[in-house]
Amino acid sequence: MTTVLEGSREEVRESSQDGRSLATDEAGVAYVEYIVLVLLVGILVAAAIMALGIPLLEHFRMTQSLLGAPIP
Q1: Structural domain includes residue 19
Q2: Which residue range forms the structural domain that includes residue 32?
Q3: Distance CA 16, CA 24 (A)
Q4: Coil, strand or helix: which one is 29?
Q5: How many domains are contained in the chain?
Q6: 72 belongs to a structural domain
Q7: What are phi and psi of 29, to 5 degrees?
Q8: Running DSSP on this structure, what letter comes out for residue 71?
Q9: What is the pTM for the complete model shown?
Q10: How far is CA 13 from the centre of its chain?
Q11: What is the pLDDT of residues 1-16, one digit of tens each?
Q12: Across the chain, which distance is largest between two alpha carbons, in Å?
């Protein structure tokens, strides 16, 4: 039964060392920066589409109603 406890202690030591190495690991930092950059650009583009899209839609509907009017 002591072997089970010793094995679990080793696993705890290895997992705590993995946690420390993750705190200093820089392997995925570039991917995180790219994801954040893409998200920010996407949010800005979506806001610009909303800001420009609503007035364009109103102009389109006004033009559509003028072209479809029975009076030339």
Answers
A1: yes
A2: 2-67
A3: 13
A4: helix
A5: 1
A6: no
A7: -65, -40
A8: -
A9: 0.50
A10: 34
A11: 555 555 566 555 555 5
A12: 97
